[in-house]
Write a structure and sequence with these properties.
There is one protein chain. This protein is of the alpha/beta class. About 50% of the residues lie in helices and about 10% in strands. The chain has an eight-stranded mixed β-sheet, sandwiched between helices. Strand 6, helix 11 and strand 7 form a beta-alpha-beta unit. Helix 3 runs antiparallel to helix 4. The two termini are about 30 Å apart. The N terminus is likely disordered.
Length: about 325
Amino acid sequence: MGIFGFFNREKKETLDKGLEKTKQSVFDKITRAIAGKDKVDDDVLDNLEEVLITSDVGVDTTLKIIERIEARVARDKYVSTSELNRILREEIVTLLTENNSSDTDSWDLPTEHRPYVILVVGVNGVGKTTTIGKLAWQFKEAGKKVYLGAADTFRAAAVEQLCIWGNRVGVPVIKQQMGSDPASVAFDTLASAKANNADVVIIDTAGRLHNKVNLMNELKKVKDVMRKVLPKAPDEVLLVLDGSTGQNAFEQARQFAAVTQISSLAITKLDGTAKGGVVVGISDQLKVPVKYIGLGEGMRDLQLFNRREFVNSLFGE
């Protein structure tokens, strides 16, 4: 079993509760979309298209889903409206599968090298540092030795917050003085982690999207310097997005993808919003797998993303 293999009833309940606002919104809209209809026809599909777009799935992804359902209706000749939810779930799961989003509840660290290095990016306020803290806690709970690197050196609050999380979780945080070179912090973190046989390193970075050129150069330098210590670092570039911002999260994702290669997504704050559909749209448009979703304040409320459970919870009966 992988290190996060604790998908159980409690986790399912957290998922259902976290997506409750989105699910209720989607359910109400779909109910209105099929009102008075026995079969899926053009009117139902038009209404469903509006439901998905207004649920922050995104226009391009919505059109893709509708086209797939249209193809099934054409093939089967008759599809009842009672079957629509099942078909919708199947097509969205297929879409997420194509984007390599996971369908497991565990994650095995590679055994060929240590430490496993996660470089975390995202703008201020999306829950980036909190996500790092929760990840560190989950790794530590699984018996892994974790190091954190405070490479967002231009914000005193960012370094301070990461140190608070480090103390709370009980893992070391490598930092330097304010305004230090972020790449230098990353180098020190990896060197220390390697010397102390750490299993996981998580590096926090600045998220100044207003100056893309500087951000791109900074992230490139961080990666180049890390590779002097570990030639394959980073193993993962995790983009953290605030799901409650809906379409704004789309734009942030596109902008970050333009300045650095993203390998996975963490979408936070889904419990306080009816915009959970953004998870499907962002993954589809970026062709990047969703790896984590944030569903509350608790340590365990950051969950490994399970596409089938997510879709069933969001669009289930």
